[in-house]
Amino acid sequence: MTAAPSGPAFSVHDIPFSTYGSWFDISPVVAEKTYAEDLHLVSHQNGMHAVLRLVPLDPATGERADTRVEATPGLLGWVGESGRVDLAYESPDTVRLRGSGLDFGVCAAAQTLTPFSGTYFFHDPAANGHVFTSYETGRRYRVTVLSGTIADTAGAQALARADRGLAVTAAADGTWEIAVEELDTSRPPYASAASFDDIAESARGVFADFVDRVAPWRSDATPAAELAAYVVWSATVAPAGLVTRPGVLMSKHWMDKVWSWDHCFNALALAPGCPDLARDQFQLPFDHQDESGALPDSVTHSEVLRNFVKPPIHGWAFGHLRRKLPTPPGRSELTEAYERLERWTEFWLTFRRAPGAELPHYQHGNDSGWDNATTFDPERVVVTADLAAFLVLQLRELADLAAELGRTDDEQRWVSVAEEIQTTLIDQLWQGDRFVARGVATGATWSSNSLLDLMPIVLGEHLPSEISSTLADHIKAHLTPYGLATELPSSPHYLPDGYWRGPIWAPTTVLIEDGLRRAGHDRLADDISARFRALCETHGFAENFDALTGTGLRDRAYTWTASSYLLLAEAHAHREGR
Question: What average pLDDT does the segment 380-397 reach?
């Protein structure tokens, strides 16, 4: 009864098991950096919440059975000496489980029920199913026994503190099967004519189709492409709550949001094979653009955060996006993008320039996306060279869009502003061998050992050659065997797990690689791409990586890392195929 594997194997300790469109996953990760002994159904509606504990049981004793977990993109299995349990997604809100030789328990993760928190458990006679209702997610989770029998239940209709759940055991043929659904208030009793094998095969096929669209160029030279595609595919959720479109969360671990620069890298990776999904990724934060033109810091199911913003890389991203789409955007799409980018640009020019200042500033490291980079150690309200560089690229993209839309006056205006800001950037912040930052309150200037100071390389062909060459030399100093350290390893402020004070990050790698290549530093760009691709192929798709060992850090299933691998691997494959 063992279902066929469906794609690359992976550890659920690193990558949650889920499917495209689902708001829940199956994982032992139940909170930030918190790993449970058992796998849980973890929902991302109203936040990250472990709702149900899933436990293989010894039929003879009723105790937890010793099993190992196996996972491929279409099938999850608990494998023990006496039997196994398999799980597959039938739809984004329904999983089917089948077992032989092992019983199985489905229990509320939270034991305590209060008037405002916890999980209530009861039998629903109308649907002939057992239902868990979660205060935290605001949803219900219904278990329907399809074959086998219920061996035990506990805590039905119990209040306060109690064990709540059920255990299922095999029928005469030695197997059992259940369905678990995430639902709103009610729906008809569960019914399906599909067999478990059909469901598992369908799940395998859906993912295989996605990989073929997203990474048709993959080969033995890009061995992590399928798993990278799975990380992105499985982290995609259906529109719900404040997520206005199909959205790729940064992770279905605790980083379960869409941040307003992370989304750009997912959009670019998806563009050639899934153009509509790519467009949705780019536009999703713009759906929450406020009256000032600012984008939110992040968006998730039930929360839009506006206490910080993120850097204006969106002009750079949209320029790449429209070149990667299989069909060029039409006039209405270009108009919408233009108007949204215009408002975002005006925010920086209007609300983030001090009186009399020509360059915009960040109000905190979080605004830059480099939260705790050493550039921000002396002061936090700071004019930095990376911000001006990103804004110049965005202004140039606005000029290109204005030209395509026949807005000649706008085109000339944006070109003029871009040239003014770039000239000011070099005049005020370039000191012959590096860019400096300047405090808005004090006027003091300083440099740091942060890679952030070198990010103006993103200007590529627009930089004077002597500046791009000097930046390239400094960037080389940040290269470790695994990639670009965000703080020089020789710096007294370097920390192996210091977030932006040392570890390697995917977005900086992609941005710098692109800028170097456009500036003509192809050999260095090739080296950076190769090291990052090898890092992902060895250590996976973590939020960031120890720059000296390559070890994955923090959230271990991060979509912008997976998408960055896909972007660099695709570009490398095309260069090799020339």
Answer: 98
Tokens of 21: 């469109």
Picking from 178, 225, 234, the residue whose alpha carbon sits closest to that of residue 203 is 234
What's the confidence (pLDDT) of residue 1? 41
Q: What are the two backbone dihedrals, phi and then psi, of residue 573, each rounded to the nearest 5 degrees?
A: -60, -40
Mention every residue, 6+ apart, whose C-beta is less than 8 A from residue 280: 245, 246, 247
- Say if residue 188 is exposed, middle or buried (CB neighbours under 10 Å; 0-12, 13-18, 19+): exposed
In what helix (H) or strand (E) does residue 112 lie, and over which residues does it extend? Answer: strand 112-113
DSSP state at residue 431: -
Q: In 498-545, which residue ranges form alpha helices assigned H by DSSP?
A: 506-518, 522-539
Mind listing the pLDDT tens digit for each residue in 167-178? 999 988 899 999
Contact 54, 40 (CB under 8 A): yes
Rounded to an integer, what distance in angstroms lies between the CA atom of residue 448 and that of residue 342? 32
Could you report the per-residue pLDDT of 389-426, keeping only the tens digit for each? 999 999 999 999 999 999 999 999 999 999 999 999 99
Tokens of 510: 């992609």
DSSP string, 56-102: EE-TTT-SBPP-EEEEETTEEEEE-SS-EEEEEEEETTEEEEEEES-
pLDDT of the residue at 527: 98
What is the rounded CA–CA span in Å between residue 75 and residue 88? 5
Report the 10 Å Cβ neighbour count for 327.
7
- pLDDT at position 5: 43
